[in-house]
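seq/struct pair 1
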Amino acid sequence: MQRHYGLDWLRIGAFAILILYHVGMVFVPWDFHAKLPGAWWVAVPMMASNPWRLSLLFVVSGYASRALLTRNKVPWRFARQRSLRLLVPLIFGIVVIVPVQPWVELSEKYGYAAGFGHFWMHDYFRFAVVGPLFLPAWNHLWFVAYLWVYTLALALGAAVLPGVATRALQAGFAWMMRGPALLMVPIAWLVLVNFALFPGGRETHALADDWVAHFSYFPAFLFGFALACAPHTLAALVARWKASAAIAVAAYLLVAGIEIRWPGSTMPHPWGIVFSLARAVEGWTAVAALIGYADGHWNRDHRWRPMLTEAVFPFYLIHQSLIVLIAFWLRPLALPGWANFALLVVATVAGCWGFYLGGRAIGPLRPLIGLRRHASRRTHVDPRPALM
């Protein structure tokens, strides 16, 4: 399998949007670890990516997993490689990177008076509830934990299923995922999850009880895995990207209109149902449009791609802690909203680059921030698929 540069660019773009999205979380009425004065309307542009950004990342990760599993030849070797690549930075993140987030949240919202050093030494590793928070926590790193669990499930399936069964499943996917079913089946599944299987359910990111997330993201991960060996499905996505994009934009406009008319959760019946249905439609058609466009227009290399691809994981590890800490420092200054936003974006991006470049240059730190232990020519010309 050759590297798909278009999906690399999608992954880079999705994480760039994620940084802006989490900056936006500081200003919207939704719950977040740190807050600055904002306005309800900030949620409207955030909803342009909210329904699809995580599903897209799981699809891309599933696609890359197919190449990695093929290259490692045996499932246990694939599972070992992915466990080392994901668990080491996850544990490092929980121990070192994440703690500032609950400290800021407890200090701002619940009157926690001790400094960060005391909090980290005495309260963070209690394995108990401190205020309303169970500590230690993985916060935004839940994505890494879920990706690891899905990877193990994939390796287990590859180990126990006979070859004839896997070939039949792949053939069934290729047969089903073409034509209108390519959009209708995933949308129907999302509607089933949200309205029939778990009505009123919300994602918890706690792994054990997060069935809404698992029933949404694990199928997306498997879709990407199957897509890697389904050229006709990929061609169908390319052929229909304009139609998919048009549907996604129309669905978003409906979502935005309802949010503007009834901000927050104040929408009356039946508009709440319409809102959820439109989000499901936007959620999948945007993914389909982006993959189709990326394959048709972005599947080419560039001298910046290897570094940006490598930088994505370190950026992801550190970005939310930077946002929360910087917002905490900005709050006493009482700056205008536009100044807070600009400073947050600039300082967060600068901090992410510093974290990546500094960690990349120090050999023992590389595995801790999600990089391969030794730098190689692949930093400049990397033929392997990108995967967290």
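seq/struct pair 2
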Amino acid sequence: MNVLSMHALIGAYSSDGRVWMEELKKVLESNINLVYSFFQNEVQGVSLRKPEGTYVVVPNFENWCKVHGRTFDELLRSGVEVGVLWRDGRQFHIPYGIRLALGLPTQKLEEVLHRLKQYVL
């Protein structure tokens, strides 16, 4: 173990670490609810389940692509072109899935969703 790892471990198991973890859990839960609501209410044709043990969601865009006459690769590229760095789900055996990690400040996530709605979806 190096010095940084040792201090990180001490911090993680301290009372301050517990406070930080509780705050983080609130942010992650808020972000998950925000993304779930966005895809349920703002975007037709995208299916999504809330994660139960992670901060990664994988919306399925199969129906959306068919309805809008776009390929999955076109969808991926259009997101990247406006600064949304999402991850292709095919490498995880999810053919029309896009992995979105939600471990970021809510304000940044809101910006991502705004860009998606305005420029991509």
